[in-house]
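Weekly sync, protein design subgroup
Attendees: M.S., D.O., the rotation student, P.L. (late)

Item 1: inverse folding check
M.S. brought a backbone from last month's batch and wanted to see whether the design step gives back something sensible before we order anything. D.O. pointed out we never logged the input encoding, so this time it goes straight into the notes. C-alpha cells as presented (148 positions):
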C-alpha cells in the first residue's frame, strides 16, 4: 500500500513538473515578445534575419495556449508587443479582438516603431490596426510562415 502511494505521489509530482516546464517555455517566449522594441514581420537587418519579436511570436503561435499567451503580451507589453499580440489574436479568431483594439485606440501611441529590411521607422498605429483588421498580417503569415 505504501509503495502504491509513493508511486502515485511520484507520478503526480512528475506531471506537475512537466506542466510547469511547459509553462516556463511559454513565459520565456512571452517575455521576449513583451520586451520587443520594434514591430516587424519578414527579413530584417543587413543579413535579412527574422527578428527576435517575430521568432517569439511564431513560437507562441504554435502553442496550445497561444490565446492566453498573446493576451498576456497585450496586457503587459508596449506598443510593438501589443501589435504582435493583436495579430496573433486575430489569426486565432479571438472573440475579444475588437475590444482590445478599442482599448488600444483609447490611449494609443501616435506611432509604433517598425523595422523593415534594414530600415527603422515609425508607422501610425491606425495603419497597423487596419492591417490587423483586414487580415494583411495573417495573409503574410499564411504565405511566409505557415503553421506546422
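Designed sequence read out in the meeting:
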Amino acid at each position: 500500500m505504501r509503495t502504491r502511494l509513493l508511486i502515485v505521489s511520484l507520478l503526480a509530482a512528475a506531471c506537475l513538473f512537466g506542466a510547469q516546464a511547459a509553462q516556463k517555455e511559454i513565459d520565456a517566449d512571452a517575455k521576449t515578445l513583451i520586451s520587443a522594441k520594434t514591430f516587424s514581420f519578414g527579413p530584417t537587418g543587413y543579413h535579412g534575419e527574422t527578428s527576435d519579436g517575430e521568432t517569439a511570436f511564431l513560437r507562441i503561435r504554435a502553442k496550445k495556449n497561444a490565446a492566453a499567451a498573446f493576451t498576456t503580451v497585450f496586457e503587459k507589453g508596449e506598443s510593438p508587443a501589443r501589435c504582435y499580440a493583436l495579430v496573433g489574436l486575430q489569426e486565432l479568431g479571438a472573440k475579444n479582438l475588437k475590444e482590445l483594439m478599442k482599448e488600444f485606440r483609447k490611449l494609443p501611441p501616435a506611432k509604433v516603431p517598425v523595422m523593415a529590411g534594414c530600415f527603422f521607422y515609425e508607422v501610425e498605429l491606425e495603419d497597423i490596426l487596419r492591417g490587423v483588421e483586414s487580415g494583411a498580417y495573417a495573409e503574410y503569415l499564411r504565405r511566409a510562415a505557415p503553421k506546422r
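Discussion: The two ends are 45 Å apart (CA to CA). Confidence is low (pLDDT under 50) at residues 5-25.
Action: P.L. to compare against the previous round before Friday.
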